[in-house]
Amino acid sequence: MAPKTRHGAQNSKKLKFQEKLASKGITTDALLKKLKTLHQQLAELDQLEDGGSVDTNSLSTARSELISMSLLLHKDRGVKAYTACCLADILRLYAPKAPYTDRELRDIFQFFFRQLSAGLKGPEEPYFNEYFHLLESLATVKSVVLVCDLPSSEADELLHEIFKDLFTIVKRDISKKVEMYMANILAALIDESNSLPNDALEILMAQFVEKNAVCRSSTFSHVVVHCRAAYRPTIIPLSRTSLQCCG
């Protein structure tokens, strides 16, 4: 299943922002200002009131600039947070297709979940709103299912990382909405995957049996429900244990 599209069918809207982001010698403050402007304009393209569509040709410059290693590996957290938001917006606007190669998609999703793992802690944390935007986009647009279309070895590696990161984050003091979005991401990946790699499945099962696991009923029961059909022989005994723990 491809990610959800939000394209309209009639009037085509264009992105005004056409500036370079990976310019040599650009200061962090100047780069942050550009990224904030780009993020705002991309968000506005999602709020078309007349049912119009987006001219994806106008996104070409931003699309290519945002995957520059000078942004993905930037030392400033704000630059990376806004870059992640903009990339999530690009995937949303191009849905159901992705304008990147398999290798670029792998790098993008690794980048996404590293940002969430490092920064999604609490509303008082710097750039929490940007991390939340990224999480919400992955959960609602379901661009995350593109991971399942990657070559099997790369998809398996990413699925392992995603399960590990999300089950680490869920043990923090997070809101129910954050918890729900993470559960939706896991459920979408479980639904879309022909089979979960062993490493990801082991992480899932470990949450059900480890004595010190943080049991959150809404998250765990939601994930268990989506696991039952695909992994019935393995998951059902463990799901009963997890639901007893959460109940």
Question: Can you offer a commentary on this structure?
Answer:
- The longest helix is centred in the N-terminal third of the chain and has 18 residues, at 28-45.
- Strand 1 (12-13), helix 1 and strand 2 form a beta-alpha-beta unit.
- With 247 residues, this protein is mainly α.
- Helices cover 62% and strands 2% of the residues.
- It has 11 helices and 2 strands.
- A two-stranded parallel ribbon has the order 1-2.
Ends apart, CA distance between termini: 33 Å
Indicate the radius of gyration in whole angstroms: 19 Å
Profile the largest sheet: 2 strands, parallel
The portion of residues assigned to helices is 55-70%
Please report the number of helical segments.
11
Overall form: globular
**How much of the sequence is in beta strands?**
under 5%
Multimeric status of the protein: single chain
In round numbers, the mean pLDDT is 82
Low-pLDDT stretches? 5-9, 233-247
- Kindly state the number of beta strands: 2
Instruction: Output the structural class.
Output: mainly alpha
Write the layout of secondary structure elements.
Elements: E1 12-13, H1 28-45, E2 53-54, H2 60-65, H3 69-72, H4 77-94, H5 102-119, H6 128-140, H7 152-169, H8 176-192, H9 198-209, H10 217-230, H11 232-246
Parallel strand pairs: 1-2
Helix pairs in contact: 1-4, 4-5, 4-6, 5-6, 5-7, 6-8, 7-9, 8-10, 9-11, 10-11
